[in-house]
Amino acid sequence: MKLTRREFIIGGAASMCVAGLGAALDRFAPQKPAPGSIRGANSATGHKLRGGGLPAPSKVLRKEVVIVGGGIAGLAAGYRLHKSGCRDFQLLELEHMVGGNSASGRNEVSAYPWGAHYVPLLTEEATEVRQLFEELGVITGYDDAGRPLYNDYYLCADPHERLYRYGRWQDGLIPALGVGAEEEAQYKRFFDFMESLKNRKGSDGKRLFAIPVDKSSQDEEWLKLDEITMAEWMAREGYDSPHLCWYVNYCCRDDYGATMAETSAWAGLHYFASRNGTASNAEPGDVITWPEGNGWIASKLAEPLESRITTGALVHAVTDQGDHVTVDYWDQATHRSTRIIARTVVVATPRFVASRLMQSETRDFSTDGFSWSPWAVANVTLSKLPSGKGAPLSWDNVVYGSPLLGFVVATHQIPQMRPLKTVLTCYWPLSHLDPADARKEALRRSHAEWRQIFLKELLKVHPELDGHVEQVDVWVWGHAMIRPTRGFLWGDARKQALRQQPPIFTAHSDLSGISIFEEACTHGVRAAGQVLAYLGIPSRSQA
Amino acid sequence: MAPLLLVSVFVIATCGLVYELIAGTLASYLLGDSVTQFSTVIGCYLFAMGIGSWLTRYVTKNLLGFFITVEILVGLVGGCSAAVLFVLFEHVYSFRLLLYGIVTVIGILVGFEIPLLLQILKDRLEFKDLVSKVFSFDYIGALFASILFPMVLVPYLGLVRSGFLFGILNTLVALLVIYLIKDEVPARRLHKLSAFATLMALLLGFVYSETITSLSETSTYQGNIIYARSSPYQRIVLTRQAEDVRLYLNGNLQFSSVDEYRYHEALVHPVMSALDSTSRVLIIGGGDGLALREVLKYPSVQSVTLVDLDPAMTELFSSNEMLLALNQRSLLSPKLTIHNADAFLWLKELQAKNSRPRFDAIIIDLPDPSNFSVGKLYSITFFRLLRSVMDQNSIAVVQSTSPLVARKSFWCVNKTLEAAGFFTAPYHAYVPSFGEWGYVIASPRPYQRPASYPGGLRYLSVETADEMFHFPMDMARVETKIQRLDNQALIHYFDDEWSKYLIY
To answer: What are the chain A neighbours of B104 within 8 Å (beta carbons)?
Structure first.
């Protein structure tokens, strides 16, 4: 074989390329897509409620109390009953695990949350939660000034948050780079105002914005803010800084799954002005969290309940029979229905579920005025830690202008030097459409579509993770959060829903209009107290 | 024309040898083991030259044009070789593949040169004369290069810039031929264009070579790299300059063999000598075995537990003969148990056990608190964990960065230990390669200084200790926050203080 000059040069160039790039070539080879699956609230089984045709009960049990729903409200109610010595109850949960919005998962890399994943330092008003946190060892004591001491391991580890803008990560979530003097001035005015609201009291001597919400001042002057949206309030007060508006909108989506144009101004202000918790060993504004998020609390609440929890139980009727209540449920495993005859029942389900369960002409469990935002959450398992220019990897990593809220590092709370693998929990409130449309769109998408959507957002800011994604699991929440839309928090629908009608009690954060742990827990504890009173058992705490 | 072509022989011979030396030196720098590297690079290069020479038989027409092309290509590939190898070192999957690939390409191209010139000149000179002249110039060029390389090129220009310089010379040879032998070369314009483009590229490389090298880590080290390896946790680099062997982790100096005895004597003996009898010792970090070497000077020691995250460190320091000589084979001691684990999680697990061990002495020899990861091991939470494996008489010591450069950082460690419930005894020592260095002793009871130290120490004595425990005004205590997991104040102090210092 004779080489022509041309061939020789081409050959030379080619061998250069092979030498230089050969090793890198495998990066361009087609990669197998990361495996994973779609998880989600059991809507298929849930929809049987609508379809009807469930078998009549073939077994009858008797219990003092039945709790329907094993989210935080139901678990807190059960935990409180247990602690008060009331042991004759059954908690029925549709899913295969309890926790509700505080669901969590675990793989060989880490435990990770599927939903709610932190609790801010407690406000003074959150007495029910405080007691629980003392019992669970989250609060380990108090200093001389009366400030709680939180368990070191549960306080969110440093660094907390970073924000991606202009190809760089900055510390904290409030946009700093390229913000002009005029915008800075708006920042200052806005945050100073919110700070001043934190300990401001209304005409009735209560804090304007409290957690739980129902301990807030009923000063009409401030409740009026519920009648306008947060966007309208921002405009009215002259806040037009695009960066500030992004941040406020981000916060509304974060806590309510709704944009600031949909969120009531009272709720919007509540986000910034309610959290005044302090701690002896943490800064104001800190949060407590665990690798599995609030799933940690859920499992602690469930621990003492043991066999009194029945999972996979689709409750299809709760009927007030005068001197007792019957609860009929269908067991997903045996495909048989059971009736429990109870003296009293706590319905700790979302409002739209409660309204289908209650079979009574005289009771109003209407869902008028209630609306829920759908969310998608992905847990992405990585064989490499994300990096990036600027601020180091933090607990919460937010991308400016992204439809996603951010990526939360599940291994962040494990006090190790540097894990080699991690799981990122990616939160996506589907607020781009009206909730019903967004829900439909979300439930239609396949796992492959979701994986592509989430990875596109992730790899945009972390191209270095390409080829290091081991698994992508997705959870679609059809009804993730109650939305505090205009007029909802202080309107009639919620007032109506809060009214208790023994022997059936209700407990859920839907009743607060704000989907946070403290609200759900407070309602659960309140309902447990009402049950105990109804049964004539003194409400006491015992180990 | 013939004399000029003979000058070209001299130039290309010099260039050829320089590329070979660059590749060999770079390989020794980056991969260590210079004998192997030079031997394989030279072998590969000579073999590739043979391939090139053999291939010239297929070049039958337009010899000059082909020669010009070869010169431009050698200039380009050889000229950029050092820069490419440096910059891609950390980024390619197999550095050796890249290295031998480049060496082979240069070798083949250089292998073309002399046979081609012989063919070109064969009609212009008599055969005897031709062979003797060409090879004389070739060998003179080689001698010149071999002297120039270590005396001038490496010390004054550096490898990357030398590469570009000789690439430029190769390209100039091509241009020389293009301009001198106008008529005999077809496609002259194309040759001219590519020669000038290459020349420009190499000139740019020559001018900006500092920027290029700064992209590569090797520029951060003084001395030759004799070992470099990325473990999943860190980059481990050993350098050597004369008798000075230095260890760098992620680019930060961990010790210099010339003065590490000062650091390690000061770290270990104030604790060990203060104890009546020490039988159980825990070392956290210290995978180099140097603190352990000092610990093993006490015959009362029955067992030592060493917890270092990175198995690559403990393996390196228990297998390499030079390093074993440095740590006096401490890592091979039968008294030693090594746990390659995260110290925080390891201690947390231990604490959860009912029958957890108690250590008489704990030596904490971790990297400086320069990031949030290692910062956890300086937190109050971690120090409280330490307390759970100590009894009333135990003593611990924490290496605590420089109290002179990072005064707040140092006193922050001290304050955090106090807040964790310890009595503290801060002290400092001068270690030339580090500067003024600080340590904090922590114990459940107030610390009493030892009345004597073991024989055979080179730095520490009772008199030296008097100075060590005294803090001059410029290092005296300052008020600081406590290092907590949820708010790593220490990392901010450290970052702030060292970044100011490094400006000078």
So the answer is: 15, 19
DSSP B345-414: HHHHHHHHSTT---EEEEEEEPPPS-SHHHHGGGSHHHHHHHHTTEEEEEEEEEE---TTTSHHHHHHHH
Assess whether A278 and A359 both reside in one domain: no
Residue A21 belongs to some domain of the structure: no
CA distance A291 to chain B (A): 15
Token digits of residue B351? 């604490």
Whether A29 and chain B come into contact, CB under 8 Å, resolves to no
Q: Looking at CA atoms only, how far is residue B34 from chain A in angstroms?
A: 22
Secondary-structure class of domain B257-501 per CATH? alpha beta
CB–CB of A159/A395 below 8 Å? yes
Q: Which of A482, A500, A517 is the last residue of a domain?
A: A482
In this prediction, residues B407-419 reach a mean pLDDT of 97
With vertex at residue A237, the alpha carbon angle to CA A234 and CA A242, rounded to the nearest 5 degrees, is 45
A377-399 pLDDT tens trace: 999 999 999 988 899 999 999 99
**ipTM at complex level:** 0.85
Contact between A160 and A293 under an 8 Å Cβ cutoff? The reply is no
> Contacts of residue B343 in chain A, CB cutoff 8 Å?
417
Contacts of A239 (CB under 8 A, 6+ apart): A186, A189, A190, A245, A248
Asked if A416's CB is within 8 angstroms of B69's CB, the reply is: no
Chain-chain contact of B381 with A12 (C-beta, under 8 angstroms): no
Which chain A residue is nearest to residue B486, measuring alpha carbons? Answer: A157
Sequence-ordered list of residues with C-beta below 8 angstroms from that of A526, at least 6 positions apart, any chain: A128, A507
Q: Where are the domains of chain B?
A: 2-220, 257-501
Q: Enumerate the residues of chain B whose CB falls inside 8 A of the CB of residue A418.
A: 233, 373
Query: Which CATH number belongs to the domain containing residue A244 in this structure?
Result: 1.10.405.10
Q: Is residue A135 part of a domain?
A: no
The shortest C-alpha distance from A133 to chain B (Å) reads 18
In A383-485, which ranges are E strands?
A: 396-399, 406-409, 422-429, 469-482
Q: What HEC string does B114-148 produce?
A: HHHHHHHHCCCCCHHHHHHHHHHHHHHHHHHHHHH
Do A417 and A494 sit in the same domain of this protein?
Answer: no
A115-167 pLDDT tens trace: 999 999 999 999 999 999 999 999 999 999 999 999 999 999 999 999 999 98
Quick check: is B365 catalytic? yes
Residues A96 and A72 in one domain: yes
The residue whose two tokens read 């009291």 is: A201
Q: How far apart are CA B110 and CA B113, in angstroms?
A: 5
Q: How many domains does chain A have?
A: 3
Q: Which among A152, A282, A414 has the least Cβ separation from residue B381?
A: A152
For residue B503, pLDDT over 60 is answered with: no
**CA closest to A418 among chain B residues:** B373
- How confident is the model over B325-377, as pLDDT tens digits? 999 999 999 999 999 999 999 999 998 887 778 999 999 999 999 999 999 99
> In this structure, what DSSP letter does residue A500 have?
-
A272 and A404 assigned to the same domain: no
Domain residues for the domain of A354 are 63-104+292-369+485-535
CB contact under 8 Å between B376 and A3, yes or no, is no
pLDDT at A368: 87
A281 in reach of chain B (CB within 8 A): yes
**Are residue A238 and residue A208 in the same domain, yes or no?**
yes
Pick the CATH number of B2-220 from 1.20.1090.10, 1.20.1250.20, 3.30.420.40, 3.40.630.30: 1.20.1250.20
Q: Does A533 touch chain B (CB under 8 A)?
A: no
Q: Are A116 and A517 in contact (CB under 8 A)?
A: yes
Q: Which of A261, A285, A309 is the last residue of a domain?
A: A285
At A297, which CATH number?
Answer: 3.50.50.60
- A-chain residues near B88 (CB < 8 A): 20
- CB spacing of A282 vs B487 below 8 angstroms: yes
